[in-house]
Amino acid sequence: MSLAKRFNIPYNKAKEEAKIIVAKQEGSKIGIIVDVVSEVCDVKASNIEEAPEIVAGISKRYIKGLIKLNKK
């Protein structure tokens, strides 16, 4: 899945530096093409909170929740 393509953001074809992030939930996996990766970590479902209204109102269809790690 290319987020640029999904959200109609101009993009160039995949660059050599592009990375693919693989996310999985309940046996399903997706790959997301990104330009830069600064950190990768495993996230437990218990660390996912419901998205606040300001986020949910904008893109509830695309954002299911926000991850909190180390109380941030």
Summarize the structure.
With 72 residues, the chain is α+β, with helices and mostly antiparallel strands.
Tell how many strands the DSSP assignment holds. Answer: 4
Overall 3D shape: globular
Number of helices: 2
Low-confidence runs (pLDDT<50, min 5 residues)?
none
**Strand line-up across the major sheet:** 1-2
* SSE pattern: HEEEHE
Largest sheet: 2 strands, antiparallel
Structural class: alpha+beta
Mean pLDDT: 77
**Which value, in Å, is the CA radius of gyration?**
14 Å
Q: What is the first-to-last residue Cα distance?
A: 27 Å
Helix content: 10-25%
Q: Could you tell me the strand content as a percent range?
A: 25-35%
Give a verbal description of the structure.
Helices cover 15% and strands 28% of the residues. It is of the alpha+beta class and 72 residues long. It has a two-stranded antiparallel ribbon. The longest helix is centred in the C-terminal third of the chain and has 7 residues, at 53-59. The model has no long low-confidence stretch (mean pLDDT 77).
Furnish the topology, listing elements before pairings.
Elements lengths: L2 H4 L12 E7 L2 E7 L13 E3 L2 H7 L5 E3 L5
Antiparallel strand pairs: 1-2, 3-4
